[in-house]
Design brief:
This protein is an all-alpha fold. The chain has one domain (16-248, 256-341). Helix content is 76%, strand content 0%. It is built from 15 helices and no strands. The protein has helices at 16-34, 44-60, 67-85, 91-97, 99-122, 127-138, 141-152, 156-180, 188-198, 202-209, 214-229, 231-246, 261-279, 283-306, 311-341. The longest helix has 31 residues, at 311-341. The N and C termini lie far apart (67 Å).
């Protein structure tokens, strides 16, 4: 008979996969509820879900009976969320109005990779987690980590640590931006460009830019989406690098498989950018619905990943990569500030 650890109810009548997916759904909804509380609302639903799952693992242990479903959530559902995330990317807007933001985004990605990895090596941080944080900092936070993790064959615990740290750090930075905004000699459009060029996730960008008005928000999202636009070429470069690296091995089992969710991401972007307008479809309802679905799927994935985290190991494994990411993020903020004021 299958049983959850720590005296939980038996689940012998529930298929392991369905039970595990349902369990991550419950944790995702619990995290969503926690994110509505004062104070925790700054963290957002993904970080709250990840934390709730890690605390459950710490207190009750890993529910081994539900492992197939939990791994389905942290793998398949995570990639599905990345595909749906493509709808947020309006290719037309980037190509028509954001070409200079593409250049800035490329500089941001290269800067983040070089600085985070250099600091991580200097401070002897674990390379797998540090690389995930570098890519998340440069591109689009948790979504970027989710996209590159299968290419890099990252461990679930590393993905969980990376997404949790970048969600919390990005939230702190977004709050700091709103605090210093009134004292900065920037117009609303410049401030928005600064936030979009330097903050970690779309949610962080929207949080920081919204108080400055509609011009700031539109400029911020344009700058941020230009970085999201570069997610696919970065993934393809990583795929070539990983395959070349694995090619030195004599065993075919180490060959890196093509991440088929990337064409899905591109297809969704093109569908939202060109097909829907051509058909006269109002994108607002669909974008709202898919945004909720993406958040829920990512929440379930974060629950699955959070269950793989041992809080006892966080302090020994996370502090050095976290320090490298925070230091690089501060430098990126300064660099981006001077970029937008030039």
């Amino acid at each position: 008979m299958y049983r959850l650890t720590a005296g939980a109810a038996p689940v012998s009548r529930i298929p392991a996969r369905f039970g595990g997916v349902l369990f991550t759904l419950v944790l995702a909804l619990a995290g969503w509820g926690l994110s509505l509380l004062p104070g925790l609302d700054r963290m957002g639903p993904l970080a709250c879900t990840l934390l709730a799952a890690a605390v459950y693992r710490h207190r009750c242990g890993y529910p081994e009976a539900l492992r197939p479903g939990i791994r389905f959530s942290s793998g398949t559902l995570l990639r599905t969320a990345v595909v749906l995330f493509g709808l947020r990317l309006d290719v037309r807007v980037i190509l028509e109005n954001g070409l200079h933001f593409l250049v800035q985004g490329a500089v941001t990605i290269v800067f983040s990779l070089v600085v985070v990895m250099a600091l991580g090596r200097w401070w002897r941080a674990e390379t797998p987690v540090t690389l995930l944080l570098a890519l998340g900092t440069g591109i689009c936070g948790a979504a970027a980590i989710a996209a590159v993790s299968p290419i890099l064959r990252s461990k679930e615990e590393d993905v969980a640590l990376g997404t949790g740290m970048i969600a919390l750090t990005g939230t702190v930075f977004a709050v700091a931006y709103t605090v210093v905004m009134p004292w900065l000699p920037l117009g609303s459009a410049e401030y928005g460009a600064w936030a979009g060029a330097s903050l970690h996730e779309i949610a962080h960008v929207a949080m920081a830019a919204s108080p400055a008005g509609s011009d700031a928000l539109s400029n911020a999202l344009l700058a941020k989406l230009a970085r999201v636009f570069l997610l696919v070429p970065v993934c393809l470069v990583l795929l070539l690098w990983s395959r070349r690296k694995s090619g030195h091995s004599n065993s075919g089992q180490h060959r890196v498989a093509f991440p088929f969710f990337l064409p899905g991401f591109v297809a969704m972007s093109l569908f939202g950018s060109y097909v829907m307008p051509a058909l006269g479809i109002d994108p607002a309802p669909l974008l709202h619905g898919t945004s909720l679905a993406t958040t829920l799927l990512l929440g379930m994935a974060m629950a699955g990943l959070g269950l793989s985290v041992s809080l006892r190991d966080v302090r020994t494994r996370a502090l050095r990569p976290l320090a490298a990411m925070v230091a690089a993020s501060l430098l990126l903020s300064v660099l981006s500030y001077f970029w937008v004021t030039m």
